[in-house]
Amino acid sequence: MSRSxxxxxxLQKSLFSSKSxxxxxxxxxxxxxxxxxxxxxxxxxxxxxxxxxxxxTINTLRALHQKDEPITMITAHDFPSxxxxxHAGMDxxxxxxxLAMVALGMEDTSEVVLEExxxxxxxxxxxxxxxxxxxxxxxxxxxxxxxxALESAIRVVKEGRVQGVKLEGxxxxxxxIQKITRAGIPVLGHVGLTPQRQHAIGGFRVQGKTTTxxxxxxxxxxxxxxxxxxxxxxxxxxxxxxxxxxxRLKIPTIGIGAGxxxxxxxxxxxxxxxNFPPGRFLPKFVKQYGNVWAESIxxxxxxxxxxxxxQYPAPAHTYPMPPEExxxxxxxxxxx
Length: 336
Fold this sequence. Notes:
Layout: H1 3-17, H2 21-28, H3 32-35, H4 58-66, E1 71-75, H5 79-87, E2 92-95, H6 99-102, H7 114-125, E3 132-136, H8 146-160, E4 164-166, H9 174-182, E5 187-192, H10 211-227, E6 231-235, H11 239-248, E7 253-256, E8 264-267, H12 269-273, H13 292-308, H14 323-335
Parallel strand pairs: 1-2, 1-8, 2-3, 3-4, 4-5, 5-6, 6-7, 7-8
Helix pairs in contact: 1-2, 5-7, 7-8, 8-9, 9-10
């Protein structure tokens, strides 16, 4: 007899044997979790955090900025990575186009397309109950015209279920940013090193190291602020330059390789958690806070060893069968 059928008959018995109609109704309306014991490996991962917190909004971020309290942001590319980031209390979670490399195995961010970003945004958004979630607009989804950018932004928010979008570029993309923000979609700017334009700027190089280059960073930051960005990422910029730019702006700056004078910080979760094999290149600005790869290797190798030696699964990991049923089953097999 199937477990679901057994559960149904047990519930029916409790309903019809109940002397109180209210008890019967209560049994009928009981949550599914109370009606049956889950005996599947496919259980939901989305356990709510032990300490519930309010949803982070644009106003929350502005309040943090006004109090000069650093804003924390980290990337996530799927439900598990977003789930742990939200539980850890991140203010913001970015579904960055870096997922092209860390989740999809691509060479660089230019390969990922809008449909893939939307899929990952949707996965991340299911886990982020409190953090303010942003989706990256990938290369090719916003450069042609402001109208194209708005259409892409609407899809990322509507289908990806995030609260805003991020796009790379400065002065030249001010009209695009303005188009999106006027439609009511929050935009996180991104100036300094813009990875999507790595070939145009000579690779992954620090920006703002000369007076002219530093002025370009400032002008770009001021332009995206004027266009309506609620915050701006400063990537790979000298700490002194980033601090001065931050002081000139009215909106928060989120640094990545830009020193601690910014209004907040962001890192790629895979990088900072150490979820990669030994020998992988890490940018200078990354601090590795853990070694998820080593722990995963250790666990999987132990599992492999126990399977090979038949230590796993042990009796504690198996489902029992009543002895009389087993005896009957054995007799049936022997008789055939």
